[in-house]
Design goal:
476 residues, alpha+beta, Phosphorylase Kinase, domain 1, Transferase(Phosphotransferase), domain 1, 4 domains, six-stranded antiparallel β-sheet, three-stranded antiparallel β-sheet, 11% strand, disordered N terminus
């Protein structure tokens, strides 16, 4: 029964299809589309589809990181983390199907407000940072199936990777550069990963990082929301990294009139160059921010965040030119053709070589349902003597069929007797006593059905001889 359920589930997943609605955004490594998950009975669900750019699909290291993101995302089920629903391959690229967050990211919020000469409102900025802390805390503290710490570090906490919905939800996304003990693609010591402007000083020096690096990065994001400008940004990537290493943070109270010395002390602890002097986990950072709001009697709710997002989107829609419909239709058509061949990856190998495109034959989810895997319920209790006795006692009562509800067993016995009875036997097509089975010692032990054919021929010959004798005696 479990095998059947698993096969049915994989068949259901294989039948599910995704339809592209429109392109959301694109980068140098992947692009994201708004799509619809279409399944049985007209079921539809809006999703975000992340597609690896084709020229990177053959890069085993990159695909290893991409699969790491999918593996981690599938485990990270939290209100403040974007959920991952599915991962699959189609032709020469890979897809991740994720929760669609109807809103925008922090980068857009900061940019739209900056163009209007404003910064993110103080209470809203603190509130969004607190909820990002909750998502990071869940990831940092996640345990493996064996109960061991996974030591997840996001390593790419930045405004584009914090999404805010029209309902005031705050969600961390894009664990593509995350570090974890279960990841496929290992990071060599000294390799810098993440956006340079949001690195921690220890990461900029090429040292090993832990969850405190994410706290530093989130501190940068909060500082920038309130200051309305970048904290660490040089003319070149090298200069930016050097600024991060030095970690000289300008006084925020001199930039934003809403910031007092008490809050600056709260934020300064997150932006301390020495990891040992920082908040040691995201819970501590969240608690410090919540304590400040509470002690200063500042009220902020998801409704305030929702209103902020709606106003940002309204301003952005009037300032952003639309993509020509003919160009968009061409893009949608090409991506849709790939999605029609989408094959879910139920089991992701621990070998990075899975980066090669997968054929449907390699994926269980693409296999057709095999009716031979169905089990006969009549066989579930074949080894139970009590049930067997009950079956025998019910077999003579036609009004109570018992377990043999279909009556196929009696029909099979009748057909078997019809094959063995003489053609003109008056008892043919009635229901006499079934033909007794061949004694065990006369049954072949193996090697095919030749012995059964010989026995059948002998029975038929004897029956024919008996019938001939009967007719000759009758005529005589």
């Amino acid at each position: 029964m479990p095998a059947l359920c698993g096969q049915a589930y994989r068949t259901f997943m294989a039948e599910q299809r995704y339809r592209v609605v429109k392109r959301l955004e694109a980068g140098g490594m992947a692009e994201v589309f708004i799509g619809e998950a279409q399944s049985v009975q007209g079921f539809k669900k809006k999703v975000a589809i992340k597609r690896v750019l084709p020229h990177l699909a053959q890069n085993k290291n990159f695909i290893g990181m991409f699969l790491d993101e999918a593996r981690l995302g599938a485990r990270l089920s939290h209100a403040n983390i974007v959920s991952v629903f599915d991962i699959g391959a189609a032709d020469d690229t890979y897809f991740i199907v994720m929760e669609f967050v109807d809103g925008c990211n922090l980068k857009k919020i900061i940019e739209v407000l900056r163009k209007g000469g404003r910064t993110v409102p103080f209470k809203e900025a603190v509130y969004m940072t607190m909820h990002a802390c909750r998502g990071l805390s869940f990831a940092h503290e996640l345990l493996s199936d064996e109960g061991e710490e996974m030591d997840i570090v996001h390593r790419d906490v930045s405004p584009p990777n914090i999404l805010v919905s029209k309902r005031g939800e705050v969600k961390v996304t894009d664990f593509g550069l995350a570090k974890a003990t279960t990841q496929l693609e290992k990071t060599d010591p000294g390799v810098v990963k993440g956006k340079f402007s949001y690195l921690s000083p220890e990461a900029a020096r090429g040292e090993d990082v832990d969850e405190r690096a994410d706290i530093f990065a989130l501190g940068i994001v909060l500082w920038e929301m309130l200051a309305g400008r970048r904290l660490f940004l040089g003319e070149t990537d090298y200069q930016t990294v050097k600024l991060v290493q030095q970690a000289q943070v300008p006084s925020l109270s001199k930039i934003s009139p809403e910031v007092d010395e008490e809050f600056e002390g709260v934020l300064a602890k997150a932006l301390t160059p020495d990891p040992n002097q920082r908040y040691q986990n995201a819970r501590e950072f969240e608690d410090a921010l919540a304590g400040y709001l509470f002690s200063n009697q500042m009220k902020v709710t998801a409704t305030d965040i929702a209103n902020l997002v709606k106003s940002i989107l309204a301003q952005a829609d009037t300032a952003t030119p639309e993509t020509p419909s003919n160009q968009q239709s061409i893009i949608d058509k090409l991506i849709q053709e790939e999605l029609l061949r989408f094959t879910s990856l139920d089991d992701i190998s621990d070998d990075p070589s899975v980066a090669a495109p997968l054929s449907p034959d390699d994926v269980d989810g693409a296999q057709p349902l095999d009716a031979g895997l169905f089990e006969n319920p009549a066989d579930w209790f074949s080894d139970d003597a009590d049930v067997a006795a009950a079956l025998d006692s019910n077999s003579g009562d036609k009004s109570e069929p018992g377990w043999r509800e279909s009556g196929l067993e009696s029909l099979a016995a009748t057909l078997e007797q019809d094959e063995l009875a003489p053609p003109n036997d008056p008892a043919r097509r009635s229901s006499p006593t079934p033909v007794p089975p061949t004694p065990p010692e006369t049954q072949p032990s193996g090697g095919g059905g030749g012995g059964a054919i010989v026995i059948g021929l002998i029975v038929l010959l004897l029956a024919g001889a008996g019938a001939a004798a009967y007719f000759l005696g009758y005529i005589g």
